[in-house]
Amino acid sequence: MAWRLTRREALLCGAAWMLAGAIPTDTEVERFLELSRELTGEAELDPGLGRIYLQALRQSSLFAGQLEQAFADPGQAIPADLEVQILDQWFTGVVPTDSGPAVATYNGALMWRTMELRGAPGYCHGALGFWSRPPKS
Amino acid sequence: MSADLTTEVAVVGSGVAGALAAAKLAEAGIDVVILEAGPRITREAAVQSFAEAPIRSPDAPYPVTAAAPYPRRGDPDGYVIESGPDTFGPSYIRLVGGTTWHWLGACPRLVPDDFRMKSRFGRAVDWPIAYEDLEPWYAQAERALGVAGDDADDLGSPRSSGYPMAAMPLSYLDLQVAERLAGSPYPSLPTPYARNTADWNGRPPCCGAASCIPICPSGAKYDAMVHVARAEAAGARILERCVVHKLELAPDRRIASLLYRRPDRSDVRLRAKVFVLAAHGIETPKILFMSRGEGAPDGLANSSGVLGRFLMDHPYKLSWALTKEPLWPYRGPIRLSAVNSTRLGDRRARVPAFRSGIDNSAYNWPLGGPTVTVRHLIRQGLRGAALQQAILDQTSRQIGLTALTEQLPDPENRVVADFDRRDALGLPRPRLHFRLDDYTKAGLAEAERVHEAIFALIGTSETHHRPGAMPGGHIMGTTRMGDDPRSSVVDPSLRAHDHPNLFLLGSGAFPTGGAANPTLTIAALSLRAVEPIKTALRA
Predict the structure, then answer these.
(1) For residue B467, with 0-12 CB atoms within 10 Å meaning exposed, 13-18 middle and 19 or more buried, which class applies?
(2) Using the beta-carbon criterion (under 8 Å), do B54 and A102 form an inter-chain contact?
(3) Which of B104, B297, B363, B465 can pair with B367 through a Cys bridge, CB separation 3.0 to 4.6 Å?
(4) B327 pLDDT band (50/70/90 cuts)?
(5) DSSP symbols for A70-91
(6) ipTM
(7) What confidence tens digit (pLDDT) does each residue in B109-135 have?
(8) Do A122 and B211 touch (CB under 8 A)?
């Protein structure tokens, strides 16, 4: 189905990943995914993207400290700024970097799926005329 | 300077106007050189650049070179200098294939009254040709581009032949809107588009990528690369990254040669028998201004003094709202139908013609797309399933209306070459003077009222109108066509009055702009100019 990452998408993710420093461990990624599932309401989140999003936050001067605190004390409420940023990353696929916003994934951004589209604009989505009917008919 | 090159016909610009003419001439066995200021790109690279761009503006997929800059979204102090008082906002790119890379594909014809604004409504000027003169060329242009339309729809432009391809299936949104507007003063009708509904000359049918602007990933939407390839297959040579900056005059006032500059700032001379400028409504007059010299102090093709004047756009009124039930926008081609009645009839003596597109891409143009909605809902504090539900609810009910509005020609609206402000190659940058007049503003206000009425018929809430006008970026009028050499630049065959072997293709020739996207008319005029170009070649 359209939501599996294409080769080009994997390459895009790779490009973002190359910018990152220390790779988050599987345990850290799982904790981040758990938090992300709760915030997004989405049960199936891509662990590869989770790793990129977590790493982007760790490298951000704005969010690194907040994230560390949230991980250190799971009982504490997550700062609102951090919640917004985590959600923004999952839904839009855009992460902050030192040189400005960068696209970690385009077709893999959660918003397209939430909108019940067949994929992100710019990729072929089906045979002529599928758009004449509502998505689930 | 390198040794001079020679050809029979030199075509400057590889967009739809130049590529179509070049293909026809090359296929007739004529030696053609096409000069393009920008580089050649691939569709795959353009799609990838689009996907990787954090802000997906119309120019996001396309590279810009220092040697051939062009106006970029979000770069108001860039290459084109705007002196105001209003913003023109030109939209063109300098690449092999030109601006059809990111056009919408809309192919409405002008209507007969568009050619007789003065005699019919007492406004502006009449064209030197009538609709009937152009009709056969419209039919040829529709076949050349591959236009899909419904022969049963009366859009006010009489047709001698059917559309070459069956109409594009409408979106669910278009179908629902059409049902609600039927029987009102504002019925919506499908617009003909150069988007394939079947395999057409090796290009596939539309696959619903919902990105006609800025890039069609499959080539289902026509772009001028079709005719660039045809021209090359017939033997035409394309010289890319070659910025033409001067035409050189012979003593008999024919054009003898042109000079182009390469990125290393070296100049090359090309001699030809006939010269065709097809570099769009800003670069074409700029080349002629840059060619000023002895015997032509105000530039070539400018004995009338009107070169660069009468710059027109199609300013847009943008409106958006939420429908009561989901109409599921963002699926399939980004625009498919429009309200056509507001461009017809006696009302034009009072207000300009406009055509309101029913935007299947909803909030893309006015707000930058559904990302804005997603971010707004996140910041409102929605989380989890409630957030997902709200995103689906809002984005499935979004609708946009975009009224393409006629602007009349005004001699004070103009493009000039600014010899004091230079680009990276040391060439003058274009400077625009632009003001929207009261007639145009009345049209935009009327469009807002009509949009309110349309929204009421559809049933919407949270209605918004963008104040003033959104630039359409269409560039028209700067090389005006007319019978009188004292008041126009080119004759009805697009030949410069002042120079028998110089042709100026493109929407610069339009005396008035009507309320139709210009490309099909550009294509029809280019095809119509091919025989006169051949005649000039034999002279």
Answers:
(1) exposed
(2) yes
(3) B363
(4) very high
(5) HHH-TTSPPPHHHHHHHHHHHH
(6) 0.94
(7) 999 999 999 999 999 999 999 999 999
(8) yes
